[in-house]
């Protein structure tokens, strides 16, 4: 069996409850929802941290077994009111600042302002988990791709030696080396951030 690797990202907007949802493949949890996509693939969990932060976790093994996080100590007190609903082929989690929308067929996640403007969206097939192994240890290779506007810039990701400031359109290996420091946080010029968290 593969070692558990769950990826999650926190959408932290810099401009920056309980609910009942009715759908066969949507499960209510105390701080959000879990969606089991109809077409298979990783199960997606949305957990509301605050009006401006929703933690999204995708699990190819579909059980969300809790293990130690490599980058997040989740002691944040949950705050803000939120609601969840199903409309057509989408599960929607609404807070006072943002809406997180999960496609019930594919598990694709999008974030919108309450006015309806898109903040961030996964590409249609932008998330993959590929089983692999190294030196006898099993794991998943993760690919994560988002849509972005042409004039959007991405900053952060740590200390790298390529002399690049804007990482838009670039592939970045997040690994620690002698003079390289990997920080799994990216900040958009459109006022949101993404923190990747790998859980073993």
UniProtKB/TrEMBL annotation:
Signal peptide start-end: 1-23
Protein name: Alpha-glucosidase domain-containing protein
Keywords: Signal
Gene3D superfamilies found in the cross-reference section: glycosyl hydrolase (family 31) (2.60.40.1760)
InterPro entries: Gal_mutarotase_sf_dom, Glyco_hydro_31_N_dom, Glycosyl_Hydrolase_31
Residue ranges occupied by any Glycoside hydrolase family 31 N-terminal domain in the UniProt entry: 43-197
The keyword Chaperone appears for this protein: no
Superkingdom assignment: Bacteria
Organism of origin: Paradesertivirga mongoliensis
């Amino acid at each position: 069996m593969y070692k558990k690797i769950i990826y999650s990202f926190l959408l932290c907007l810099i401009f920056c409850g309980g609910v009942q949802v009715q759908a066969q493949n949507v499960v209510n949890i105390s701080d959000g929802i879990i969606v089991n996509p109809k077409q298979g693939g990783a199960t997606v969990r949305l957990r509301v941290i605050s009006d401006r932060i929703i933690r999204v976790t995708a699990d190819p093994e579909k059980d969300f077994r809790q293990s130690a996080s490599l980058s997040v100590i989740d002691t944040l007190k949950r705050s803000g009111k939120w609601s969840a609903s199903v409309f057509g082929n989408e599960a929607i989690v609404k807070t006072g600042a943002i809406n997180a929308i999960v496609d019930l067929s594919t598990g694709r996640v999008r974030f919108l302002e309450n006015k309806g403007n898109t903040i961030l969206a996964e590409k249609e097939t932008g998330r993959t988990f590929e089983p692999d192994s190294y030196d006898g240890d099993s794991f998943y290779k993760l690919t994560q791709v988002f849509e972005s506007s042409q004039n959007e810039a991405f900053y952060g990701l740590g200390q790298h030696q390529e002399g690049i400031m804007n990482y838009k359109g670039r592939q970045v290996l997040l690994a620690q080396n002698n003079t390289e420091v990997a920080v799994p946080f990216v900040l958009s010029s459109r006022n949101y951030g993404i923190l990747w968290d790998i859980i073993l």
